[in-house]
Write a structure and sequence with these properties.
Elements lengths: L1 E5 L4 H12 L3 E6 L2 H5 L8 E4 L8 H8 L3 E4 L12 H19 L4 E7 L8 E3 L10 H17 L5 E7 L1 E3 L8 H10 L4 E3 L6 E6 H13 L5 E5 L4 E3 H11 L5 E3 L13 E3 L2
Parallel strand pairs: 1-2, 1-4, 2-3, 4-5, 5-7, 6-14, 7-11, 8-10, 9-13
Antiparallel strand pairs: 10-12
Helix pairs in contact: 1-7, 3-4, 4-5
């Protein structure tokens, strides 16, 4: 089996490629920067393609990706700026044109990451049978891409798995994530850490588990449609931070309530598998 992975040098992609190689699966990995890829331990074990979806798509590269048995499509630019209009003004169309190109060249199975934000401002347990109601630009673009591809399925023979990601943590995560900011404060020797009141409930997974669930779903021949990539267990942000400090035997004063709650997320939601 041969699997293509876009966004391979990203937070999730790095772990997905590593897991595929451990299963002795041949990998065609893509990323926008080959110099970045060359620094990753798996570089010499994959067929790497430098690919920028915002530039003209070379037929040779499209053919190589379309010859794979499955495409795990993780690439998406501009995060975590969820409200910016470029997600649907630009990203949506470059993403669709790329996916349409590889599908028309013969690719038969795609697994694409969506987002829990597609559910909108719903509270509580979110299950895949719920109607999408995106309330920010990023979620709108993702949900629209899924619908575009569903229309393409009416004319092209391919299977699609839509993988809605919730929250994750681990080595290589964004510097803007709360645990990255917490670690930076600890490294700087700060005596306090500014955060929200921390009462909001979220669904967190270690990135290794996220990669595991993505690979399992992508390689599952018996099920298509929408998946939630989640733990199914809600945890408050305050508890998440406290657990991190306890597990790492570190202390810092939490300045709760310093930041207001975001206006694009419900107070309490988590995934239902």
């Amino acid at each position: 089996m041969k699997v293509a992975v876009t966004g391979s040098t990203g937070f999730i992609g790095n772990h997905v490629v590593t897991l595929l190689l451990k299963q002795n699966i041949k990998v065609v990995a893509t990323g926008t920067n080959i110099q970045k890829a060359e620094k990753i331990s798996w570089f010499n074990d994959v067929d790497f393609i430098e690919l920028d979806l915002n530039k003209e798509l070379e037929e040779k590269k499209i053919n190589k990706i379309s010859s794979c048995d499955v495409l795990i499509h993780l690439a998406w630019s501009g995060l975590p700026n969820y409200k910016e209009l470029f997600h649907f003004e630009k990203n949506l169309y470059t993403q669709y044109n790329f996916l349409k190109s590889v599908i028309e060249k013969g690719l038969k199975e795609v697994a694409i990451t969506g987002t829990c934000f597609e559910y909108g401002m719903k509270e509580g347990a979110l299950h895949t049978g719920m109607l999408a109601d995106p309330q920010n630009s990023y979620a709108l673009a993702k949900d629209s891409l899924r619908k575009f591809l569903q229309q393409l399925q009416l004319k092209s023979d391919f299977k699609m798995k839509w993988l809605r990601l919730f929250y994750m943590y681990g080595a290589g995560q964004s510097e803007k994530s709360i645990l990255s900011q917490l670690e930076k404060a600890l490294q700087n020797g700060d005596n306090h850490f500014n955060m929200s009141a921390g009462e909001q409930l979220r669904d967190y997974l270690a990135v290794e588990d996220v990669a595991k669930f993505i690979v399992e779903a992508a390689l599952n021949k018996n099920k298509n449609g929408i998946y939630n990539i989640c733990s199914g267990i809600p945890i408050s942000i305050k508890k998440l931070v406290e657990n991190y400090l306890k597990e790492n035997n570190k202390n810092i004063n939490l300045n709760l309530g310093f930041y207001p709650y975001t206006d694009f997320e419900p107070m309490a939601f988590w995934g239902e598998k």
